[in-house]
Every structure is written in structure tokens, then in C-alpha cells.
Amino acid sequence: MLKERYTQNRIEAGCDEAGRGCLAGPVYAAAVILPNGYHNKLLNDSKQLSKKQRYALRTQIEHDALAWAVASVSNDEIDNTNILRASFHAMNLAISQLTTPPEMLLIDGNRFINESDTPYVCIVKGDGKYQSIAAASILAKTYRDDFMIEQHQRFPHYYWDHNMGYPTQQHYDAIEQYGITPLHRKSYRLEKQLSIDF
């Protein structure tokens, strides 16, 4: 079971993002404040869960959390700044939308640019260590997946309902055949690199 808390008596918000490595679409982030004494043995890093488990847990998290919020930053803003800054900004947007002000931020990863005065700690692989970060990873992942599945209706050749914008062979092949869409990240390498052995 993941850890409940990092501090003893502060209101903690777990924060995580989804979609940093994608070729298309926005980056999403979520912030979640869970109640004191909260335990859910099914909570885990979203990447370790099935799609069915993620969506079932999303419903549970939204019901149980003291506060939660999801935010996104567009592919255009990713191109204008960079993916790391865009990810941090998405996290900050989610944090700013929490209806309960957090007193401590638990950030998944090894660095963060804080746009508030709230103290924070970075926790490498935190989505596999703390319940609140795992909960945030689940919300960020499922809301981003929802967006990409919706966009698949507009751009079906790219199979975003399966790859969610990640760099799969199918996605690279579609870019080569049909070009890029307004949702592709132009600052990313959008052609599959061939490895040549000499």
C-alpha cells in the first residue's frame, strides 16, 4: 500500500502530469488532496493499472477527495516554451484551481518551478510511493486519454484512440502519409529515426 502522507499535519496536494512524451496533444496535470487517514489499496501509479482500473479509481478519487483539479497546456504553448516548463505550468494551474488551499505540494519528479508560495517537495517516482500523487496521475492520465479519444474522431488516421498521441510506429507512419495536424507538437521530432549499422 502506498504512503498516506509526507508531513504530519499539513494539507497535502499530490501533483502529477500526463503526456510529456507524446507527439501530439496537450500535456495534462492534476492535483489531489485526499482526506486524513485515507487508504485505498488499489491506488497506484496509473501506468501500473489497466484502463478499467484507472477509470474506476477516477470515480472513487473524485468522490473521496477533499479537493481535486485537472488542467492542461496546449501543444502550441509546449512549442512556444518547452515541454518541461509546460508540464510545470499545467501542474501550477491544477493546484491553483483546488477549492481547498494546500499547505504542502508533493510533486512527482525531480524538479519543479513553483508559481505559488506553497512549499513543495519533489519525489522521484512519487506516483508509486504516495497515494495523493498516484491519484493525481490517474486523473491526469484519464482526462488526457478522454481528450485524445475525442480528437480521434477529427483525425482518425493517427489512431489516437489507441496510441493517445504517443510515438508508436502506427503514429509515425500516419504522419509520413498524411502530414501533421494542428495538434502535433512542431518542436518535437516527428519523423521516425532509422538506425543504420555500418
What structural keywords apply?
198 residues, alpha/beta, Nucleotidyltransferase, domain 5, five-stranded mixed sheet, 6 helices
Structural class given helices, strands, pairing?
alpha/beta
Number of helices: 6
What distance separates the N and C termini? 49 Å
| Strand neighbour order, sheet with most strands | 3-2-1-4-5
Along the chain, the helix and strand elements come as: EEHEHHEEHHH
Low confidence ranges: 194-198
The overall pLDDT average reads 95
Q: Indicate the CATH topology.
A: Nucleotidyltransferase, domain 5
The CATH architecture term is 2-Layer Sandwich
Q: How big a fraction of the residues is strand?
A: 15-25%
What's the CATH class label? Alpha Beta
Radius of gyration: 17 Å
Describe this structure in words.
The chain has 198 residues and is α/β, with parallel strands linked by helices. The protein has one domain (12-178): Ribonuclease H-like superfamily/Ribonuclease H (Nucleotidyltransferase, domain 5, 2-Layer Sandwich), CATH 3.30.420.10. It is 35% helix and 15% strand. It contains 6 helices and 5 strands; from the N terminus they run ββαβααββααα. It has helices spanning 51-64, 75-80, 83-96, 131-152, 160-163, 169-178, and strands at 12-18, 27-33, 67-73, 104-108, 120-123. α1 packs across α4 (131-152). The longest helix has 22 residues, at 131-152.
